[in-house]
Amino acid sequence: MRAAPAGRGTEQGRGRVLVLGAGYLASRVGRRMAALGHGVTLSSRRRPAGVPGGPAGWHPVDVRDRGSVRALVDAVRPDAVVLAHGPSDITWCEANPGPTAAAHGGGARHLAEVLGGRRALLVSTDNVFPGRRASYGESDATEPANAYGRAKLAAEDTLLAAGGVLVLRASLVYGWDPTGLRPNFFTTCAQKLSAGQPVTVPEGRWNSPVLVDDVADWAAALLGGPHTGVVHLGGPRRLSRVEWARHIARCCGADPDLVRPAPQGDTAYACRPRNACLHSERSALLPELAGLEPADVLEASEKLISEGRPW
């Protein structure tokens, strides 16, 4: 992994950070950067509820349009950029490969044209791997499992070629998102199981889930560091979706038998890799990540539910 030239305003002191995206993960990254004292602008085609417009709030952009991306960068004049935009519904992406490629690959290409040496971080995915192995590290060869993985890998290649860029491949991201357009697996299970409703879960599918706050912490730390290349973020526990869902049921005081295993091919997860797990060969070598140990998914799930978050 190479060390990049010092970023303008992000390594030492405060700077302007542009986040491409305004959804669950993007907003958490923006919130973390703001807590560190940076001026943060989220961007998307539609303004999210509760976020004001302007340089310190939200700015419109269509990443598929070259002129829209250029106008965004000219308006915000960021010191650094984080790409955490959609679409991220992998099943939808598989059915719509053209728009998926335009948003991810095209968006990365349009940003690279106007990056101008700025520091940038792309949040990528475990779907750049086929899932035949139990887990994947940074040195493993990529082989995308689906249209989403292909689009993300194209974005990775484009941005890494631009220089000054770090790619953070995150495993399955979870946390509380009860008001989102497409709540994540943890939230969906907690909502349904606590209401006594069954959930259908693909059997034989494995993840190394990461808490959304850990992704935000790692993204902020890495953006402020000097390194470029690829870093993996996977949770410390590899577990099946069925095991996780039954743990969530017990934490909610629900019957674990409400979790209904089904063949992966019969579920919405048919196009996803059987093993969607990541481990890092590099994170321990990066001083900016010192002390940022990802939460254990079973412990974090229990804590989130015991804190009484509404769903």
UniProtKB/TrEMBL annotation:
Pfam families: RmlD_sub_bind. SUPFAM superfamilies: NAD(P)-binding Rossmann-fold domains. Residues 43-62 are annotated as: Disordered. Residues 16-283 form the RmlD-like substrate binding domain. InterPro entries: NAD(P)-bd_dom_sf (IPR036291), RmlD-like-bd (IPR029903). This is Sugar nucleotide-binding protein.
